Amino acid sequence: MKRALITGVTGQDGSYLAEFLLEKGYRVYGLRRRTSTPNFENVEHIKDQIHWISGDLTDLASLIEAVRLAQPDEVYNLAAQSFVAASWPQPLLTGQITALSVTNMLEAVRIMKPDAKFYQASSSEMFGKVVETPQSETTPFYPRSPYGVAKVYGHWITVNYRESFNMFACSGILFNHESPRRGLEFVTRKVTDAVARIKLGLQDELRIGNLDSLRDWGFAGDYIKAMWLMLQQEEPDDYVISTGEMHTVRDLLDVAFSYVGLNYQDYIVIDPEFVRPAEVDLLLGDCTKAKEKLGWELEVGFEQLIHMMVDADLDRARKLADHTITAIY
Ligand code: NDP
Ligand code: GDP
Questions:
Q1: Quick check: pTM over 0.90?
Q2: What's the mean pLDDT in 128-133?
Q3: What interhelical angle do 12-23 and 220-231 show, nearest 10?
Q4: Which residue of the set 26, 29, 119, 147 is catalytic?
């Protein structure tokens, strides 16, 4: 039985990846930091199948112990401060978790299980103010946020451990990927949640920032398969994972609101609070290498993804509405 250690298993990608690996018969170890309130929503259904290890990415001792306990064949390093907008008010924390802690994780593997295969969750945010379009594995980086800068460090230290210590370390440069498990602060989920609540009369407006930025949005459930495929190759390498299609935030609003028969222009309020100090105007990935070498294929398209998210948020909002009524009466 293969053994995998996942950091960030309570997050969007970690939860899909854990499901996927469990279905493949892996013994899955999940690193989990202590929280004062439960945060198991994404993994509630598989909670009992995951072997939980307590630890924090900033605490090397806990990571060494995690690798010792798990003895993993594969390590997926998905934990991060992952929200771009939060990286300006918390640049040092973002640097500690999203950048330097990648070295913590690599060190834990190098010391305890150097033959384990390692996946690092790199990001299209590294391309930032893009110097060419579309962006591929050879496009130079120009990050535009403390998050993007931190991810560039994480990317290069992964490459460096591969070249210095001959470790099987891969970096997946993933473009934005979403799902009903996406955090509520990200624009796709913020919109689909608002659509559901507005439709059910629980909210009357949506405050939002820049409508012109373009993103290459895919489905998280498709993207985690690429992570696994990278670790099944003969040689470690880095790959761009994307849809090769881009849409504006305005397109996103249109697809989400019109799905429930509403016009977004009747509900949005542009709020400077959601406009960023430096914006990434456009991201569009060229994933030819992943398609050719990994045989990776996309299954869910943009509209299908947004509809899936609206449906899930409608279900959640209905339950919440029922719950509120029960609570009042
Ligand atoms: P999420 O924000 O949903 O999940 C982040 C995870 O990291 C959570 O499980 C969180 O735990 C954990 N975490 C944060 N800080 C620490 C810490 N100090 N120690 C241990 N665990 C910690 O992110 P996603 O699932 O969306 O993304 C997964 C990875 O992929 C991230 O590294 C992200 O930056 C990267 N990425 C994501 C993209 C996307 O579009 N989704 C695109 C490209 C890269 P807790 O539940 O306790 O908060
Ligand atoms: P990112 O690409 O990782 O930063 O993912 P986000 O979902 O946070 O943001 C995607 C794009 O949507 C960025 O260009 C944001 O500036 C833009 N955007 C516009 N309004 C909002 C908003 O209210 N919240 C968020 N999170 N992003 C917004």
A1: yes
A2: 98
A3: 60
A4: 147
